[in-house]
């Protein structure tokens, strides 16, 4: 389904009854709610993809060797900032593979476990992994044509889903249009909600967004460790982005955008480097207090 009559699926609620309150109350876990057995879950999941396959499109291999991260975890955490300014910069195929793998890649198989999917770099409610990753690049990534790509975490490869320069269309779909021009890669995190909600119902909808946060934080920390900047974008017109990605906007919809590029605000970086020294002192003090 790629087109919807939004007036028919939108719920009109007065100001005295905010929709978020209604949803929050109705997505609480109940002690005596009905839960699916593992057998039913496994059976249902046989009909679900672990990631959208796009098998009709040619596969684009990604390197299995990853770029070395030049900063420690503690440095990446402290140095993670939102740059005031960014600009596009060249991204190697290896750097792209590194960003994607650490964001949502497979780390170990699920053999001899009760879970139906291989494990990835982030936690997922029930091991269901409802997210998909697309990205747009405008010739900034080594060897990739301008257009929109999809990442398959289990196969660790790409599919070129939408060739063409969609920068203007993306800019029109953003509250801050300059983001489309000022980055090397714009990631679109989407969710196929039923992968989570078939088991967890309304609570599963919450889990989807928690998972997107885990993914985005990994992306932020890895980009920071590679001396790249990240803009985390919530200001976009959902239906326009969904149409661009050719997803239906209800069963499958965009929930987060992350732009990667070269940081230009050097002053902020210098101040952040100074704060690392303070963080190390705090870490050392905590260690001494535990002894």
From TrEMBL:
GO terms for molecular function: oxidoreductase activity. InterPro entries: Bacteriocin_Proc_Enz, Nitroreductase, Nitroreductase-like, SagB-type_dehydrogenase. Residues 87-261 form the Nitroreductase domain. Pfam families: Nitroreductase. Coiled coil: none annotated. This is McbC-like oxidoreductase. It comes from Prochloron didemni P1-Palau.
């Amino acid at each position: 389904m790629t087109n919807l009559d939004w007036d028919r699926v939108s719920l009109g609620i007065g100001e005295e009854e905010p929709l978020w309150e209604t949803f929050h109350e109705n997505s609480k876990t109940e002690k005596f709610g009905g839960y699916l057995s593992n057998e039913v879950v496994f059976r249902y999941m046989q009909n679900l993809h672990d990631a959208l396959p796009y098998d009709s499109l040619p596969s684009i291999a990604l390197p299995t060797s990853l770029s070395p991260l030049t900063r420690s975890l503690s440095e990446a955490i402290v140095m993670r900032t939102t740059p005031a300014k960014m600009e596009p910069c060249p991204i190697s195929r290896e750097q792209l593979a590194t960003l994607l793998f650490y964001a949502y890649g497979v780390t170990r198989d699920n053999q001899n476990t009760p879970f139906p999917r291989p494990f990835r770099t982030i936690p997922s409610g029930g091991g269901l992994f409802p997210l998909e990753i697309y990205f747009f690049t405008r010739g900034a990534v080594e060897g990739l044509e301008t257009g929109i790509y999809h990442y398959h975490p289990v196969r660790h490869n790409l599919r070129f889903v939408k060739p063409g320069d969609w920068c203007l269309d993306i800019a029109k779909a953003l509250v801050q249009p300059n983001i489309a021009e000022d980055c090397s890669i714009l990631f679109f995190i989407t969710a196929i909600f039923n992968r989570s909600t078939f088991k967890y119902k309304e609570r599963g909808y919450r889990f989807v967004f928690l998972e997107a946060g885990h993914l985005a934080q990994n992306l932020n920390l890895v980009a920071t460790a590679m001396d790249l900047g990240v803009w985390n974008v919530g200001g976009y017109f959902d239906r326009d982005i969904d149409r661009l990605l050719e997803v239906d906007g209800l069963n499958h919809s965009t929930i987060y955008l992350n732009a990667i590029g070269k940081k230009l605000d050097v002053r902020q970086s210098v101040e952040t480097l100074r704060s690392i020294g303070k963080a190390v002192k705090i870490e050392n003090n905590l260690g001494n207090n535990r002894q």
